[in-house]
Amino acid sequence: MEISGIATYAQLRGSGASRRDINDALATGVIRRLMRGWYEFRDADPDVARALELKGRLGCLSGCASYGLWVPAVYALHVVYGDGARFPHLPGLFQHVSSAPHPRTPVWPLKDCLAQVAQRHSAEEALVVLESALNLRLIKPDEIHEVLGHPTRSRIRLAKHLDVSESGSETRVRLFLRRCRVPVRPQVNIRPIGRVDLLVGERLIIECDGAAFHRSAEQHEIDRSRDLAARDLGLDTLRLSYRQIWDQWPETQASLLRQIRRRKHINRSR
Ligand SMILES: [Zn+2]
Q1: What is the CATH number of the domain that holds 226?
Q2: Which residues, other chains included, contact 244 with Cβ-Cβ below 8 Å and sequence gap of 6+?
Q3: Do 86 and 172 sit in the same domain of this protein?
Q4: Range of 29's domain?
Q5: Ligand 1 centre distance from Cα of residue 154 (Å)
Q6: Distance from the alpha carbon of residue 118 to the mean position of ligand 1, in angstroms
Q7: Gene3D superfamilies annotated for this entry (predicted)?
């Protein structure tokens, strides 16, 4: 079976291609050899192909992205090598070594990718991909322990922070507030506004842009009417853009802290 425009020699032969057909396809540029036994078609996913060219497999955060999980705009490729693999160390890449052998697929299986993020990256990055996988129903809650592996103290802490989230932006803001010991609930249904991303304390709503692109004019109107409905209920709304959450995070954290110190989230009527 051909995955993401990538095929092994055996898969090409299995689909009926003779050795000569394969050589012809190579000569005419229909396929290109990535590494021994692996070929790409012209429509191949460039990240998957690049990882094979580097003699590894796409995994970790890049692997999660290829499964459609929410990941922050990817800054570098994460290539994961099987146990005992020999490979060149290159700058500008994340190159990890797994204790498992290379999978037969061009991308590490999803649970391996999640485990690689949990082992190699921050608790925040692990939470982002785990919550995205749960949100998309690609894993079940009872499979989390399998992904996290041996329950070290840091992994138990990580699992405690797992919650519902529609984007990594929400996860980042929620985790920051929880670490500051600020009461925050995700995905709260408030009538008649509907579901809000985060409710901080009793009266501060935080809405987080999950995507880097601009919101449509129609979405902008919906946001405004939700804000007005929130004011009617005595709630404040704080909207954070993708850039504020991912590109200007230190400044955004400082601003959030100042607002919390002014106790903006506490119900004034009490
Ligand atoms: Zn990685």
Answers
A1: 3.40.960.10
A2: 251, 252
A3: no
A4: 1-44
A5: 18
A6: 9
A7: VSR Endonuclease
Ligand 1 centroid distance, CA of 242 (Å): 22
CA 121 to ligand 1 center in whole angstroms: 6
Considering the domain boundaries, does residue 81 fall inside one?
yes
Distance 158 CA to ligand 1 centre (A): 17
Predicted confidence at residue 264, as pLDDT, reads 64
* Helical axes 123-135 vs 168-179, angle rounded to 10°: 130
Rounded alpha-carbon distances, angstroms, from residue 109 to 80, 85, 112 = 11, 18, 5
Q: Please state the φ and ψ torsions of residue 3, each to the nearest 5 degrees.
A: -115, 130
Give the lowest-confidence range in 7-21, 99-113, 224-238, 255-269. Answer: 255-269
- The SS3 call for residue 206 is strand
| Of the residues 161, 182, 198, the one at which a domain ends | 161
